[in-house]
Write a structure and sequence with these properties.
Elements lengths: L17 H18 L7 H8 L3 H13 L4 E3 L4 E3 L6
Antiparallel strand pairs: 1-2
Helix pairs in contact: 1-3
Length: 86
């Protein structure tokens, strides 16, 4: 059974599973990276890029990090794709 995230009240009834949010984040970062390579993304920037509330974003970011599809830089509090040099 896939992990479920609970959406805030304004999205009541619209629950998205963590895997689909994670895939959307990775896709959007790849698309944005084509025009601006080696960019690292903070959680708020990703929230705007993907148009997903923070309550759905953070579990997806943790899954991407756990799967090795996204790297967290604790010094800057940002995420990047594994092949980006930043």
């Amino acid at each position: 059974m896939p992990e479920r995230v609970v959406s805030p009240w304004w999205l009541a009834g619209r629950k998205r599973d963590v895997a689909s949010v994670a895939d959307e984040i990775e896709t959007r970062i790849r698309e944005a990276g084509r025009s601006v390579p080696n960019v690292s993304w903070g959680p708020r920037s990703l929230e705007m890029l993907v148009s997903v509330p923070m309550s759905e974003l953070m579990p997806a970011l943790r899954r991407l990090e756990r799967d090795g599809r996204l790297i967290y830089n604790g010094s800057f509090g940002s995420y990047r794709l594994p092949w980006d040099r930043r």
